[in-house]
Every structure is written in structure tokens, then in C-alpha cells.
Amino acid sequence: MANNENLKPFKKGNDPRRNLKGRLPLSETNMFKELLLRHGNKEYEVRGKKIKAIDLIAERIVRDAAKGKLGAIKIFLNRTEGEKQKQAASSSQKTGVLSEAALERLAKIFPDLQ
């Protein structure tokens, strides 16, 4: 709760607390999120099937993770398991092999990858 004794109204004219520059530009993460929200539901025809853009992106990440590509593994683990799994991803970089648990999760999500 605010302490009413410390609250001061803005001064007329120039007040250094006032934001005169407008909204800050979007960061890369926020721009990517904005693009996904705007275009993620667009459908594209791939091999005679209509597939949403967001599904194409997710499938590509999972396929690349299954192939052992580190970037895709990091994205996959971060989105499914959270930050704790970054250590597991870095250890899989050394061996070049996905853990059994990660392979099981991939198989459950995309059974047709095998």
C-alpha cells in the first residue's frame, strides 16, 4: 500500500518523472511473440494439407531436437521443462545424444517422428 505522505502530483510543464519519449520499442523476444500472435493462426498448404504456421514452427523445433541440434533441444526443453533443464541440454551437447526422458517426450508429442 502506498504511503500517501510520499505521493506528489506531477508539476505543470516539465517534470523529470514524466515519460515524454513514448512507448519503448519492442525487444526481439516481444517482437517474435507479437509476430506469432499475429501470424501464427494463418494456414499454409504443405503437401496437400492445411497447417497453421505455429504448428509448422513447433514441428520443426521437435524434428530438429530429435536430430540432436542443440538450439532446438534448448528451445524444446525450455518450453516443456523450464530453465532447470538447460544443464541437461548442455550435457547433451557434449554427447550429441538426447536423454531417454527427452526422447520419450518427443515420441509422445510426435509419434510419427520415429
How would you describe what is shown here?
This protein has helices at residues 28-39, 53-66, 70-80, 86-95, 100-109; strands spanning 43-46, 49-52. By secondary structure, it is mainly α. The protein has a domain at 40-113. A two-stranded antiparallel ribbon has the order 1-2.
Topology summary:
Blueprint: H1 28-39, E1 43-46, E2 49-52, H2 53-66, H3 70-80, H4 86-95, H5 100-109
Antiparallel strand pairs: 1-2
Helix pairs in contact: 2-3, 3-4
What features would you highlight for this structure?
elongated; mainly alpha; 7% strand; 114 residues; 2 strands; two-stranded antiparallel sheet
* Distance, first to last CA: 56 Å
With helices defined by DSSP (H or I, 4 residues minimum), what is the helix count?
A: 5
Q: Could you tell me the number of beta strands?
A: 2
Strand order of the biggest β-sheet: 1-2
What is the arithmetic mean of pLDDT?
A: 77
Query: What is the alpha-carbon Rg in Å?
Result: 23 Å
Helix content: 40-55%
Percent range for β-strand residues: 5-15%
Shape: elongated
The biggest beta sheet, please?
2 strands, antiparallel
* Class from secondary-structure proportions: mainly alpha
H/E element string? Answer: HEEHHHH
**Poorly predicted segments:** none
